[in-house]
Amino acid sequence: MSPPTRPGFDASPAIGRTVVRLGLAIVVLYAGLGLGIGYWQVVEADALTTDPLNPLVLQEREAPRGRILDAQGIVLADTRDRRRVYRDVNMANVIGYSSRRFGTAGLEQTYDAELIGLASGSPAGDLLRKFQRERFKPQSLHLSIDARLQDLGAKLLGSQRGAVVALEPATGRILAFVSTPTYDPNAIADPSRAEATMARLRDDPAAPLLDRPAQGRYVPGSVFKLVTGMAALENGVVTSETTYPDQPGEEEDGYLVGGFRVQDGHHLFTGSQALDFFEAIEVSCNIYFAHTAVDLGGGPLRTWAAGAGFDAPIPFELPTAASQVTGGAAGPGGGFADVVELANAGYGQAEVLVTPLQMALVTAGVANGGTIMQPRFVDAIESSDGALRRFGSQSWRRIASASTISIMRDAMVRAVEGRWGRLFASEARVEGVTTAGKSGSAELGPGQRPHSWFVGFAPAEDPRIVVAVIVEHGGRGAVRAVPLAGELMTYYLTTILAG
């Protein structure tokens, strides 16, 4: 007699169904394992292989790294006795460092996988490399920077804080990228000095670790008139012939807007003449561009600036800070608090903050017919067998029409070469070459010397170099930035290119 059974508890399951369920479970398990292995070995293989936190990558901090060379082939970084060695301090903000204690920074970090040899540019080759006996084949970087121009920029800035950006407008190749003060990357690469050096640098109020060309955000002053001017020209708010009838009288009393008086007063020699667009750029008339910004409106000004790269980090091989026309949230009025802020933003004051790289790119857009090229440092990567993987130029933004660019280019030539422009920026001129540019003095508040600015390019008819220079608390633009930029452009055109 069979024992009694309880429904759902004591009945024995059928063997066939149990086998089927077990088989399905095994299939699902193996399918999951296969998908997981495939995902990590194929989809995420490149990310895992190049992740600086990967133990295999950490292990390679002491391995030889590829060299970094300038445009002439001068070795800027190399490995000796299992330690990274750097040519000098002038490239520290660009190249960065490779340290057993602090990892990597700068291009050493951006191209860490290539320098170590974990990435070759061939996805198939990188995928198979993990199965090879010699997994790491260091590669070298060939940069667009010319050490001679970089050294000159650092020498001219001297002990003052500031930045220099020089680039080819037609290609986006960076020619110089100077930041002062700087630091000695050899001290960070040296294990015996790394801790003390980094502690000192982090506590230094001069912020030597800050890459000023890409991450320093500054009040631009009058160099921002290029942005206001092109935005207004593109939106049909002004033409080259636009004048403001009240402007001559306002030179003495100020332009009253929203209860605030916009002051000028540095070009009383223009007398009762109502300035047109060319003349307003030439004498750097604050009142003219305050009027222009108010007529344009905050929304269109911010929209145009965003199209030129403002309001977001610039895609680049080094980290970049976002430039801004205002600190307010974007909206119909552009985020400006009121018409007073907008009027002052028109000539580069109020809450406008820019990086030197951003102003160099805006200037490059004028020099290159309205197209900003993608900025870059690396011309080529050289593999261990001597093969070169070259990088071409790419356009980044189209910022203005041909007519707007023509007007702005002519205005910038007058700002350096014109009868009135020579009073402010004559020392930027390259002898025998038509030079275009715009100087600026960024007011910072009571008791503080203004920042000294200049942006420009030469030759104006066939631009080969664009420069953006800021000297922190350097005084008026003509005092420091203008002659510094003139020396850089002259040296590049007459010595580097001619040689």
Describe this protein's structure:
By secondary structure, this protein is of the alpha+beta class. It has a domain of 258 residues: Beta-lactamase (3-Layer(aba) Sandwich), CATH 3.40.710.10. It is 38% helix and 16% strand. The protein contains 21 helices and 17 strands. The strands form 5 sheets. It has a 6-stranded mixed beta sheet with strand order 3-2-1-6-12-13. A 5-stranded antiparallel beta sheet has the order 8-7-17-16-15. β4 and β5 form a beta hairpin. α8 packs antiparallel against α21 and α12 packs across α16. The N terminus is likely disordered.
Task: Give the arrangement of secondary structure elements.
Layout: H1 15-43, H2 45-50, H3 55-59, E1 68-69, E2 75-80, E3 83-86, H4 92-95, E4 97-99, E5 103-105, H5 107-110, H6 112-116, H7 123-129, E6 140-143, H8 147-157, E7 162-167, E8 174-180, H9 185-189, H10 194-203, H11 212-215, H12 225-234, H13 247-253, E9 255-257, E10 260-262, H14 277-283, H15 286-296, H16 298-307, H17 339-345, H18 356-367, E11 371-373, E12 378-382, E13 388-390, E14 395-398, H19 402-417, H20 422-425, E15 436-442, E16 451-458, E17 465-471, H21 481-496
Parallel strand pairs: 1-6
Antiparallel strand pairs: 1-2, 2-3, 4-5, 6-12, 7-8, 7-17, 9-10, 11-14, 12-13, 15-16, 16-17
